[in-house]
Amino acid sequence: MGRAVCGVNKPDQGGAQV
C-alpha cells in the first residue's frame, strides 16, 4: 500500500491523489 500508480490512482490501494 501507499504506491503511486501512474495514470490510475486507487484510493483502496493507497494511490497518490493527483
Describe the structure.
With 18 residues, the chain is mostly loops. Helices cover 0% and strands 0% of the residues. The chain has no helix or strand. The chain is globular and about 15 Å long. The termini are far apart. The model has no long low-confidence stretch (mean pLDDT 57).
Describe the structure concisely.
The protein is largely without helices or strands and 18 residues long. Helices cover 0% and strands 0% of the residues.
Straight-line N-to-C gap: 17 Å
Parts with pLDDT < 50 across at least 5 consecutive residues: none
**Beta strand %:** under 5%
Largest sheet: none
Number of helices: 0
Percent of residues in helices comes to under 10%
**Shape, principal axes of CA atoms:** globular
Calculate the mean pLDDT score and round it: 57
What's the number of extended β-strand segments?
A: 0
Secondary structure class reads: little secondary structure
Report the C-alpha radius of gyration, rounded.
6 Å
